[in-house]
Amino acid sequence: ALGGCCGTSPEHIAAIKAMASAYPPRQCHPVEPLMRLSGLEAKNYKPNPENMRSTFLNIGERCNVAGSSIYKKAIVEGNWDKAVQIASSQVQSGADVIDLNMDDGLIDGVAAMTRFVNLLVTDPEISKVPFMIDSSKFAIVETGLKCSQGKCIVNSISLKEGVEPFLKQAHTIKRHGAAVVVMAFDEEGQAATCAEKVRICQRAYKLLVEEVGFNPQDIIFDPNVLTIGTGMAEHNNYAVDFIRATREIKRVCPGSKISGGVSNIAFSFRGNEAVRRGFHSAFLHHACKAGMDMGIVHTAQVKEDVYEKIDKELLEFIEDVLLNRCDNATERMMEYAATLEPKCHPTAVKKINSGPPAVKFSPKVNPKPADFDPLAPDADLPPVPEYKPYQEPLQKSPVFDEMHKLFSERIAYIDGAMGTMIQRYKLEEADFRADRYKDHPDELKGDNDILVLTRPDIIESIHIQYLESGADIIETNTFNGTSISQADYNLQAKNEVYDINFHAAKLAKGAVAKFLEQHPDQGPRFVAGAIGPTNKTLSVSPSVENPAFRGITYDEVVEAYYDQAVALYDGGVDLFMVETIFDTLNSKAAIYALEQFFEAKGVRIPVMISGTIVDNSGRTLSGQTNEAFWNSVSHAKPFAIGLNCALGASDMKKYVANLSKCADCFVFCYPNAGLPNAMGGYDQKGSEMAEEIRPFCEEGLVNALGGCCG
Questions:
Q1: d(CA 456, CA 504)
Q2: DSSP assignments along 378-445, one per residue
Q3: At what angle do helices 10-20 and 686-698 cross, to 10 degrees?
Q4: pLDDT tens digit string along 655-697?
Q5: Read out DSSP for 84-129?
Q6: Interior CA angle at 292 toward 51 and 232, to 5°?
Q7: CA spacing 20 to 30 A to 658: which of 29, 163, 439, 709?
């Protein structure tokens, strides 16, 4: 679809339609099934089956109170600068994702997670990578998600409390658009053996894909990295069980990923750096060969401790324990470890005594044959199960099929700017007040949304002008129709917000009915309920002195969007347009609210989402690239994704092209009529704008076009 933003008018839409009618629409295409995460930048995980270690995602462990005493001390003492510095050092060391955990009895987890994530998102060098929101308390998990504009990983949920809580949490995570780590726990406890790990993970996978509709690419299993070398015989096969389970879980749960807390494997050897770090490297080597995708690690160390460079004598002792190659492997490891300098590294081993060894190591007891491979897969494996496709429980409105037909057969057209059209009428305070607001205490001039109540004749006229110019979709005059934006005029009361949105929708639907009565052969035409970004941002602090502060909460934004959606739907809109998104977290709040609304109504109508690139950096105001923006909102499965405002067509084209490549849904744009002049006006004529948009059509980038401001 094509449309217009700032500086556009019916003349521009008519010119765009006259030009674009000669071109076919963009063809929707599948995208490669990958786990697509985001911070400020996209993180598309594409594993290399031939060398999984080369594509392994390093999840930094140092912002976990259980993984770093220095970090924990900083959080407990409120030394947020120190905590941020720890996060920054992890990204600088090569962490692909950073794990954030506040689970400690001395810490208010909800408050600490809120403050810390709010601080991190203001630092582009940290927030360029995705976050893993890590907590055993789901309230803390949700808190982290409500502060993160990117697509996060949740760590973790499990079947420990039963199916019902598991499904409830999974639905919530899906609604927030996050990937999820599922621990291999169920009602009977923690999985230790390979068979138990596979059984629990396969059960969870079936629930997630069949009953929740979770994208398999976003399902990450943690089959429990358990400590070996404890001296207890029943622990000896834990590493082998994990590695064997990794291969089988990925086989029977297609698309899923495997993660784990790597440092758990060598807890028995804390204090001996060469041994502990050597275990981490050797474990990752074998686990990645079996298909392990990611893990919580000390990033700098695992990058330094390359498996092939580990001291060969040390490695022999480590792998005897790791692979359970003899009955007394742990005892022999302890004997060998006692000969090492405690702080030496596994790639540069130093002995306590430089001369002949002081210890004669015990011979191996019941060693496995040299040709025995404890990690080899079973010869006779069961077939991969067939999973039922997820059945959408909500009824879809007939508009889906009508719009799909339109967008598939030709380029569709969206109306242009409402605000600059209203300016042509040179309205005064009295026009905004009318009888309804004659005694209102605040000045109302400039609150264009209330004109649907006080000057509906003007708004209806503008709608009809756009319909006559060829617009297939007109938007309601509700860009600032939330209680948040209306608070600027002291009109935030729920009844006021409802009336604005309800009557705006009725007015637009009425304009369509009048137009089609005069032009019965020119349908269908659709009304989009315009849902603007609000005048508050969830990712940026309004206070320079306090970057962790936010002028509004996520829950308040969700409530405002929900109320707006109710009124727009009651007024009869055909679809929702979440538009001019300069902060992706605001759009995620809108998506969350719309999903709540659809669930309450038992029906789903199309949703189009439009972001705003603020300048030629190609990023939103809150710092995301447009591919990261797509990764963050794609869970909404929008009918169409697009860009509008801020840029003229020429500057916008390369970003629309990138979005067209990334997205598996329809794509649209409605640029400004060029860039504003020195007085803030727009000089570009309709024919000039149409020519700037022509390359969009020639290259097959869009399904719909329109205009924005001006």
A1: 8
A2: PSSPPPPPPPPPP---SEEPTHHHHHHHHHHHS-EEB---SHHHHHTT---HHHHHTTTTTT-SS--T
A3: 40
A4: 999 999 999 999 999 988 777 777 667 788 999 999 999 999 9
A5: HHHHHHHHHTT-SEEEEE---TTS-HHHHHHHHHHHHTT-HHHHTS
A6: 125
A7: 709
**H-helix or E-strand spanning residue 708:** strand 704-709
Spell out, as residue ranges, where the chain has pLDDT lower than 50: 710
Identify the CA nearest to 675 among candidates 582, 613, 611, 593.
613
The tally of CA atoms less than 13 A away on the side-chain side of residue 590 is 31
Give CB contacts under 8 A, 24+ apart, made by 438-443: 440/490, 440/491, 441/490, 442/489, 442/490, 443/489
Instruction: Give the predicted TM-score (pTM) of the model.
Output: 0.96
Q: Which residues, other chains included, contact 6 with Cβ-Cβ below 8 Å and sequence gap of 6+?
A: 417, 420, 645, 672, 673, 676, 682, 708, 709, 710
Query: Could you tell me if 644 and 580 are in contact, meaning their C-beta atoms sit under 8 angstroms apart?
Result: yes
Residue 133 token pair: 């929101």
Residue with tokens 């990204």: 91
Contact 338, 359 (CB under 8 A): yes
Q: Which residues pair with 296 in a beta bridge?
A: 59, 261
SS3 661: helix
Residue 626 contacts residue 672 (beta carbons within 8 Å): no
Please name the residue ranges forming H helices in 305-387.
Answer: 312-322, 329-337
In one-letter notation, the amino acid at residue 42 is A
DSSP 627: H
Distance (Å, whole) CA 631 – CA 641: 11
Nearest C-alpha neighbor of 318 from the set 348, 281, 359: 281
**Rg value, the chain, Cα:** 29
List, in order, residues 6 or more apart from 487 with CB less than 8 Å away. Answer: none
Which residue matches tokens 């790597």? 262
Reading the block at residue 514, the tokens are 């009048």
The H or E element spanning position 207 is helix 194-207
Instruction: Give the residues across from 457 on adjacent strands.
Output: none
- Picking from 264, 285, 278, the residue whose alpha carbon sits closest to that of residue 52 is 285
Rounded Cα gap, residues 548 and 114, in angstroms: 8
**What is the token pair recorded at 677?**
């002049």
The C-alpha angle with vertex 573 and arms to 568 and 579, in degrees rounded to 5, equals 75
For residue 353, the tally of other CB atoms under 10 A from its CB is 9
Burial 149-181 (b: 16+ CB within 10 A, else e): bbbbbbbbbbbbeeeeebbebbebbbbbbbbbb
699: Cβ contacts below 8 Å, ≥ 6 apart: 657
Q: What is the DSSP string of 140-163?
A: HHHHHHTT--S--EEEEE-STT-H
CA diameter of the chain: 102
| Cα 70 to Cα 91: distance, rounded to the nearest angstrom | 17
At position 311, the amino acid (one-letter code) is: D
State the Cα–Cα distance between residues 21 and 4, nearest whole angstrom: 16
For residue 383, give the amino acid letter: P
Indicate the SS3 state at residue 447.
coil
Nearest-5° Cα angle at 382, 377 to 387: 120
Strands 131-134 and 153-157: parallel
Degrees (nearest 5) of the Cα angle 271, 277, 281? 160
Could you tell me how many helices (H) and strands (E) the chain has, helices first? 26, 23
Contact 586, 527 (CB under 8 A): no
pLDDT of residue 710: 47
DSSP state of 211: I
